[in-house]
Write a structure and sequence with these properties.
single chain; Phosphorylase Kinase, domain 1; Transferase(Phosphotransferase), domain 1; 2 domains; seven-stranded mixed sheet; globular
Length: 341
């Protein structure tokens, strides 16, 4: 984020410091800051009061903790992300998230992205205020037997996520690589619609860019191989992460689980082995699901986790596959570089 934008954020904060409520960014400032989105500027004191002293924790990540809060005199629930003071990358992520969201929500918010409502910029106190997602994360659902979605619900979730990623890749003013697609960053709203969150690691490409070179971003198990090979990074890195997550959605387990046997510890390897050996039923255990449906989703997942980025389908094609409108070719072993789609 430029020095000019930081200066603008600082001036907005100090202009509001003595008030215990929030105000809208003026139209002139709004155009400079987030290119047309309407964000609310909060004082730290107001958010401290609204979260009851940051008492009810909703979740914790690498850069900060999310707390439950209220606004509109207690009528509206919100989620307040507080970046940790001692987290070196905290300010970078704060700036990245604001800048990314400014690009995403132009001119309107997307139904499969968690909506940012406002922020607080007060020295070490940096807060982001989001819409409250009442049904928690996808990770909670997949790993909790009581919350586990049925097969059709899982497929709806996969489609929701793919639509959100497609928006980032092709429909935003600036192409955005999320860089941290995983179940913990997929939240469920009141209607069980999946929405993508956590844009602190996102990479914005310039208008004439199709790839970028940058340090490794993301979470182990979901990071595409090209990050480690210091190759150019494209939107296909998100496709890989989505593929890993899709296999998790199918099997309702973590992508890496060393408590399992050596053959099953790495999910994508086990899934391909089951697919190649025609043992698809092993992936869903005793669930009453048509093998044909499982096989279709497995094939999509395997295409997405191909080690060679050029073999992975674009997210638009992934969505068409999920919707059943295009044929899914037989996928090769993910470590094979000899096939194409």
């Amino acid at each position: 984020m430029s020095i000019g934008v930081l200066a603008l954020l600082s001036s907005l904060f100090f202009a509001n410091k003595k008030r215990k409520d929030y105000k809208k960014i003026s139209k002139d400032d709004e155009a400079n800051f987030a290119e047309g989105i309407s964000l609310q500027v909060f004082t730290f004191e107001h958010r401290l009061e609204a979260t009851n002293g940051f008492k009810e924790e909703l979740g914790r990540g690498a850069s900060g903790t999310v707390f439950k809060g209220v606004m509109q005199n207690g009528k509206k629930m919100v989620a307040v992300k507080r970046l940790e003071k001692d987290f070196a990358q905290g300010e970078v992520e704060f700036q990245t998230e604001l800048k990314t969201i400014g690009k995403m929500y132009h001119p309107v918010s997307h139904r499969n992205l968690v909506r940012l409502l406002g922020y607080c910029f007060d020295g070490d106190n940096k807060l982001l205020v989001f819409e409250y997602m009442s049904n928690g994360s996808l990770a909670d659902m997949l790993l909790n037997q009581e919350k586990r979605p049925n097969w059709e619900e899982r497929m709806d979730i996969a489609r929701d996520i793919s639509i959100g990623i497609l928006y980032l890749h092709q429909e935003c003013e600036t192409q955005i690589i999320h860089c941290d697609i995983k179940p913990q960053n997929i939240l469920m709203d009141d209607n069980w619609r999946a929405k993508i969150s956590e844009f602190g690691l996102a990479k914005l490409l310039k208008q004439d860019q199709s790839n970028t070179y940058t340090e490794i971003r993301g979470t182990n198990g979901y990071v595409a191989p090209e990050w480690y090979q210091k190759q150019a990074i494209t939107v296909k890195a998100d496709v890989y992460s989505f593929g890993v997550m899709l296999l998790e959605i199918i099997c309702c387990r973590k992508c890496v689980d060393y408590s399992r046997s050596e053959d099953e510890a790495i999910l994508e390897e086990w899934v391909y082995e089951c697919y190649a050996m025609e043992k698809i039923g092993s992936l869903v255990g005793d669930e009453m699901v048509e093998v044909r449906k499982v096989e279709r989703m497995v094939k999509i997942g395997i295409w997405c986790v191909q080690y060679d980025p050029s073999l992975r389908p674009a997210m638009k094609k992934v969505l068409l596959m999920l919707e059943g409108t295009v044929e899914i070719p037989i996928p090769p072993n993910p470590i094979s570089f000899s096939s194409s789609i």
